[in-house]
């Protein structure tokens, strides 16, 4: 029998690829997104997050085999506080609100981080404000940063939040892991390439990927399928880089 998953950010890009793969093999996926979703909700607001949690709870009263927090905004999103609100709070609040459903089926949670999360020079005050759960303060702090710091900081904090939470959740039978994609060909990446400030750097960054090119969304989705599958039943708290060797190139000793 097919499994039941819920996810955010399934309308386009990496999330859409995962959704299609799950549905093709007979699983049911409840998608939360701004549009083209089973539950249309804006995860940048507390009301939207609540609506998403309530909507999923109604559609999965007997539990979930997995939850995937995939929705995200790029470093070029404006105002920068939107990045904080969607990438960090849109993921952590939903995981908090749905973990008991995943525990009912001893399922798996996968969050989408980024290989930028471990890059040097991130603003630790911003990250600490996120980890303290203070949305107002972290949203104020982020406006003084650049887009890279805002984006990579949101993913750094998300990964640290996940790793802090995952031992307790493992005790309830829920595995939680992070997939950390490198540059991937999606609408999000197109927006960054089109940006006057980021475009040229992105072209150089792309050239330096050891694989030779950026990922396609299905390359990331295939790894997410593994993290949702019993084949990864002993994997918990992992940050799995799926970046064609880019993190290993930039931080060979950082493990
Ligand atoms: N593309 C890359 O190079 C790359 C690299 C590392 C990490 N990521 C991460 O992968 C995830 C998926 O991104 P993608 O590249 O597929 O981009 P994408 O833009 O195709 O997908 C992001 C999805 O999130 C949704 N979303 C955005 N704001 C939302 C909001 N307020 N409420 C609800 N949904 C919202 C979008 O509508 C979209 O469906 C993101 O978390 C992103 O940060 C992407």
Walk me through the structure.
There is one protein chain. With 255 residues, the protein is of the alpha/beta class. The protein has one domain (4-182, 218-239): NAD(P)-binding Rossmann-like Domain (Rossmann fold, 3-Layer(aba) Sandwich), CATH 3.40.50.720. Helix content is 49%, strand content 13%. The protein has helices at 13-24, 46-59, 81-104, 124-131, 135-142, 147-171, 187-194, 199-207, 217-228, 246-250, and strands at residues 4-8, 28-33, 39-40, 66-69, 108-112, 175-181, 239-242. It has a 7-stranded parallel beta sheet with strand order 3-2-1-4-5-6-7, with helices on both faces. The longest helix is centred in the middle third of the chain and has 25 residues, at 147-171. It is globular and about 50 Å long. The mean pLDDT is 97. Nicotinamide-adenine-dinucleotide (NAD) binds at residues 8-9, 11-15, 33-34, 42-44, 70-73, 86, 112, 114, 181, 183-184, 186-189.
Helix content: 40-55%
The structural class is alpha/beta
N-to-C series of helices and strands: EHEEHEHEHHHEHHHEH
Number of distinct beta strands: 7
CATH class placement:
Alpha Beta
Strand content: 5-15%
CATH superfamily: NAD(P)-binding Rossmann-like Domain
Strand line-up across the major sheet:
3-2-1-4-5-6-7
Task: Write the CATH architecture name.
Answer: 3-Layer(aba) Sandwich
Largest sheet: 7 strands, parallel
The whole-number mean of residue pLDDT values reads 97
CATH topology: Rossmann fold
Amino-to-carboxy terminus distance: 39 Å
User: What are the bound molecules?
Assistant: nicotinamide-adenine-dinucleotide
Looking at how many chains there are and whether they match, the oligomeric state comes to single chain
Number of domains: 1
Radius of gyration: 17 Å
Q: Based on CA inertia axes, which overall geometry fits?
A: globular
Helical run tally:
10
């Amino acid at each position: 029998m097919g499994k039941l998953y819920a996810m955010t950010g399934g309308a386009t890009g990496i999330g859409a690829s995962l959704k299609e793969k799950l549905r093709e093999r007979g699983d049911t996926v409840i998608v939360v997104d701004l549009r083209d979703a089973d539950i249309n909700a804006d995860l940048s607001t507390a009301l939207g997050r609540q609506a998403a949690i309530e909507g999923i709870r109604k559609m999965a009263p007997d539990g979930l085999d997995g939850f995937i927090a995939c929705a995200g905004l790029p470093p070029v999103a404006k105002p920068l506080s939107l990045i904080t609100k969607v990438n960090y709070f849109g993921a952590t609040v939903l995981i908090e609100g749905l973990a008991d459903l995943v525990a009912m089926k001893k399922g798996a949670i996968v969050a989408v981080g980024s290989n930028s999360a471990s890059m040097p020079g991130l603003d630790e005050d911003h990250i600490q404000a996120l980890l303290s759960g203070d949305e107002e303060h972290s949203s104020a702090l982020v406006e003084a940063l650049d887009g890279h710091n805002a984006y990579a900081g949101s993913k750094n904090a998300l990964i640290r939040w996940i790793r802090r939470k995952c031992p307790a959740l493992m005790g309830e039978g829920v595995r939680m892991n992070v997939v950390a994609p490198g540059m991937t060909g999606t609408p999000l990446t197109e927006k960054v390439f089109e940006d006057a400030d980021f475009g040229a750097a992105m072209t150089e960054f792309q050239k330096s990927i050891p694989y030779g090119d950026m990922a396609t969304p299905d390359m990331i989705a295939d790894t997410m399928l593994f993290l949702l599958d019993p084949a990864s039943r002993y994997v918990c708290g992992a940050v799995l880089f799926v970046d064609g060797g880019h993190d290993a190139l930039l931080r060979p000793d950082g493990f």
